[in-house]
Structures are given as C-alpha cells and as structure tokens.
Write a structure and sequence with these properties.
252 residues; alpha/beta; serine acetyltransferase, domain 1; UDP N-Acetylglucosamine Acyltransferase, domain 1; 2 domains; 5-stranded parallel β-sheet; 15 strands
Length: 252
C-alpha cells in the first residue's frame, strides 16, 4: 500500500464521451439526409448534444443548439453540391445515391462541415472529437478549422490530411494521400496561418504534399502525384515530378 502522502490524485477525463460523440455524429448526419430519421430521432439527437455539452462543462447549450440547428439547411445545400461534384468528376460513380451512401470522402466532408460550424460557434473539444471520429471511419483527417468552399470532391479519401488553417476555395478536387500541411510544427506558431491556400478549380493528385501558410496554389492548376510543394504556384499551372518539380503554364 502507498503511504497517504504518496497517493497522486489524477484528473478525471470522461473518455466514454468518445462513444457518445460517435453516436451523436452518426445521428446528426442521418438527420440531415433522411426526413424520416429526423422525425423519429431529432429530439433524441438534440438531447444527446446537450448532454455532451454538459459533460464538457459548456454552458448555454440551448442557445448553441439553436444556432447549430439553424445552420443545417445551409450545410445540407453545400453537401448536395459536394455530392454533385463527386458524381461529375468520378468516372466510377454510377449515381448520386452511391455518392451519399458509399463514398468515404463525402462522409468526411459531411462531418467536417458540421464540426466546422461548431468551431465557429466557439464550442471547444467537440468539433475535434467529431473530426477524429471521421478520421477513424474514413482515413481522412480534416481539422475542423479548415475553410472549405463549395463543390469539394475527395476521391478515395484514405490518407488525406488537411490542416487547421488550410483554405480551400470552390470546385477543388483532391485524391488519396494528399497532405495540406504546415512546414513547421512549433507551438509558437499556433495562432499563425501555417497551412496552404488552394484557389478555385485546382486538382491535386495522389500523395502530393503542399506545405506552408504562405503557399498559394493558383486557380485552375493541376498538381501531379507525389509532388512536394513549399512555394506558391501561379494560376493555370501544371506541376509534375520527374527528377525535380517542373511547372508549366497552360496554353490559353
């Protein structure tokens, strides 16, 4: 037995909240897309949300839920655009229904758009827990702080990392293994923009790595597979990797 003075009091963390957040996240996505599910489970989903906030010692749960709930229609509209982009750009897709029900990249985007809204509402911890659930389910790690525009398409999903201060504009496509990351990971840089900006119409192929908060990938550019980029790329460029990166301007 330890003597009384040797006993260390450890802070208690509600690790079982991970399970609660997983269930809540699944339910709220089902509510977004299935009116029957919303009618049957909507009140239960709200109660789960309020209990999670209470266990995280977050006050004003009803006010937060009201603002969150008001955002659902707009989030659903954005997700419908994401699904259309997937069907349009993936030759393997057979229907919109397949996108909604079977594409891990679409599911990861759905969780992101919800968790991003909660982050904007200044809800701590919960947005990150939701994003980590999506990460474990889809292999796609999108920080809830990332700003993502309309008609975003993630193909195959596995191994994708999108950092906290990433900005992605409209009509962007990325493939498996892509990293949009920071060139340094110093804690002192926490409040600075550490991750790249991807302008509209960009396509980023498998295993490309783009690093740095000052890096901008110009609109309508194509980033080839396995490229590593730490400098900005002009609009309408094609970047490929051979013995070194080569940047070509598209012909008009």
């Amino acid at each position: 037995m330890k003597r009384a003075e040797e006993i260390v009091v450890l802070k208690n963390y509600s690790m079982c909240l991970r399970d609660a957040v997983e269930i809540f996240t699944k339910e709220i996505i089902n509510n977004l897309f299935d009116a029957n599910h919303l009618a049957e489970k909507g009140a239960q989903t709200k109660n789960k949300f309020l209990k999670i906030l209470e266990r995280l010692s977050i006050e004003n749960g009803e006010d937060i839920w009201r603002s969150f709930n008001d955002s659902f229609y707009g989030i659903r509209q954005k997700l419908d655009l994401d699904a259309i982009a997937a069907e349009k750009n993936d030759p393997a897709s057979k229907s919109l229904e397949e996108i909604y029900l079977a594409y891990p990249g679409f599911y990861a985007i759905a969780v992101h758009r919800l968790s991003h809204k909660l982050l904007k509402l200044e809800v701590p911890v919960l947005p990150r827990m939701m994003s980590e659930f999506a990460h474990s389910s889809t292999g796609t790690d999108i920080h809830p702080g990332a700003e993502i525009g309309d008609s975003f398409f993630i193909d195959h999903a596995t191994g994708i990392v999108i950092g906290e201060t990433t900005v992605i504009k409209d009509n962007v496509q990325i493939f498996q293994g892509v990293t949009l990351g920071g060139i340094q990971v110093k804690k002192s840089l926490a409040s600075t923009k550490r991750h790249p900006t991807i302008e509209s119409g960009v396509v980023i192929y498998a295993n490309a790595t783009i690093l740095g908060g000052d890096v901008v990938i110009g609109e309508n550019s194509v980033i080839g597979a396995n490229v590593c980029i730490t400098d900005s790329v002009p609009s309408n460029s094609i970047v490929t990797v051979q013995s070194e990166n080569n940047i070509f301007q598209k012909r008009n």
